[in-house]
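Throughout our pipeline, every protein is held as a single compact record rather than as scattered files. Such a record has a labelled line for the sequence and another for the backbone structure tokens. This encoding replaces a full spatial description with a residue-level series of whole-number codes. For reference, a complete record is included directly beneath this paragraph.
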Amino acid sequence: MTGDNNGMGGIVKNGTNQPIYAKQSAAVRSPASAGDGAWLPSLFGSTHTKVMIKHLFAGVSDSGKKKRIFFAVFASILLIAAVIGIVVGVNSKTTHTRSVTTSDNIRASTAHAIVKSSCSVTFHPDLCYSTLSDIPDITEKVTTSKDVIELAVNKTKERIQTNYFIIKKLTARTKLTKRGKIALDDCLQMAAQTLDELDEVIGFLETYPSKKGVRRYVDDLITLMSTTLTNQETCIDGFSHDKRERRLRESFIDVEINAQKMCSNSLAMIKNMTDTDMADQVKMNARKLMNEEDVKWPEWLSVGDRDCCSQGP
């Protein structure tokens, strides 16, 4: 054997002029000889990597030093792998987050556009929009104008419920005039009635439009919502008789007016929806009538039989 130092720690060569570690590369993968570096774990990857590590140990005879060198290299490899993994993970997460964010933004903008369009037909659009836009997960709840109306009616119901307890608390006052106590009791009764009516409205909206026809639902919805609006106005007017009642009314008039406006908004949106549906139904019936007029009935078929056939089963 001849010694040859190429600056890499004195690689020892045999008679064939081949590096010893080249022949012993298999030993790196085998636990046969810890002194030759065979204890190196297989996770170091390719043969090229193993040869480089073996090369580092060529000039080190002390086993302790070899282990320290190995752990230093091992730690470096882990550090590099961790950095690469973090970078790849962050890039992947960023791409996914951008995609999700874009999708959420589209849904959010669509939902808010529907809410804004629905509120635009009311007498108090700012109150309508601010009330509904604060609802959690509204982007998941709004896809049509009917969804907006259902949310508006439910928020109106919440307002009436709150007002009921505010008024009930006022009835516990000890220095109420007889007329003031009667007015408060009337407001409580009307608030309870309004809650029942709003429950009916919610029930109608859940099945709207029904197979029984649009007209019946239009009349019922408009009547019920109109009554809720009247109830709030009547409650407020009950405290108009003298100064003491008017002063009592000041303690809750703001929330009562807020409820009145919310009832008005719900009524306006329901009317806009039903008017549109009724107009569409009229157009559809007109087209159906025109199609029926084009039908040529057999001369022997009576008028009554023709009507039965045109109405279908």
User: Anything to note?
Assistant: The radius of gyration is 42 Å. Residues 126-295 form a domain with the Butyryl-CoA Dehydrogenase, subunit A; domain 3 fold (CATH 1.20.140.40). Residues 1-13, 18-44 have pLDDT under 50 and may be disordered.
